[in-house]
Amino acid sequence: MRVVLVGPPGAGKGTQAQFIASHLSIPKISTGDIFRANVSGGTELGRLAKEYMDRGDLVPDEVTVAMVRDRLSEDDAKEGFLLDGFPRNVPQAEVLKKMLAEFGTSLDVVLNLVVEDDEVVRRLAGRRTCRSCGKVWHLVFDPPATEGVCDACGGELFQRDDDREETIRRRLEVYQEQTAPLISFYADEGILQGVDATGPVEEITQRAMSALRRFAD
Ligand SMILES: [Zn+2]
């Protein structure tokens, strides 16, 4: 199967991508992994991407697209793949569609992990990070024995700026703005499938798997 996974920050996308890909015995292909592989492998594209990242700039679409094309051309992706982090926008979605058509194939389904903003805030704003060892705790889901102190090393816990409610809400707004057109693009293509991404991790995977079965043929 050829699957794209989308979902807001805090939806557990990385975890679900891993589980779903392993259930389907297809490679999980994330743009983060592709970037790292190209940079550490010293490819021309990796060198280009690194120049942008080192300057703090976004890697341009054409560089990302070229890396995705290389990765999707590898043998393990011939029978299927799960894409995580690509496409990010409608132009990338159109490029992906053309690319797959050249390979004589097309996407089967786009899974959209659906979580309410308030739930994302609840998940992310409870995170506390240890200043000394970097371990991440959660006030509700994984609290340390003593408030404000890391069980692992005794270090002081603090809330990263990224985990502050106002930062999370801003990221969610940006995400919705950028992703809404992508969601409608795939809805128009008739391959969009929403998955309720609340509750235990295993239940979410099960929901995703039954959604995928409906698109299997
Ligand atoms: Zn610690």
Automatic annotation (TrEMBL):
GO terms for molecular function: kinase activity. The keyword Ribonucleoprotein does not apply. Signal peptide: none annotated. AMP binds at T31, R36, D57, L58, V59, G85, F86, P87, R88, Q92, R160, R171. It holds the Pfam family ADK_lid. CDD domains: ADK. Keywords: ATP-binding, Cytoplasm, Kinase, Metal-binding, Nucleotide biosynthesis, Nucleotide-binding, Transferase, Zinc. Its EC number is 2.7.4.3. ATP binds at G10, A11, G12, K13, G14, T15, R127, G199. Residues 127-162 form the Adenylate kinase active site lid domain. Residues 30-59 are annotated as: NMP. PROSITE patterns: ADENYLATE_KINASE (PS00113). Residues 126-163 are annotated as: LID. InterPro entries: Adenyl_kin_sub, Adenylat/UMP-CMP_kin, Adenylat_kinase_CS, Adenylate_kinase_lid-dom, P-loop_NTPase. Zn(2+) binds at C130, C133, C150, C153. Pathway: Purine metabolism; AMP biosynthesis via salvage pathway; AMP from ADP: step 1/1. It is found in: Cytoplasm. Its main location: cytoplasm. It is an enzyme of class 2 (transferase). Belongs to the adenylate kinase family. Consists of three domains, a large central CORE domain and two small peripheral domains, NMPbind and LID, which undergo movements during catalysis. The LID domain closes over the site of phosphoryl transfer upon ATP binding. Assembling and dissambling the active center during each catalytic cycle provides an effective means to prevent ATP hydrolysis. Some bacteria have evolved a zinc-coordinating structure that stabilizes the LID domain. Catalyzes the reversible transfer of the terminal phosphate group between ATP and AMP. Plays an important role in cellular energy homeostasis and in adenine nucleotide metabolism. This is Adenylate kinase. The gene is adk.
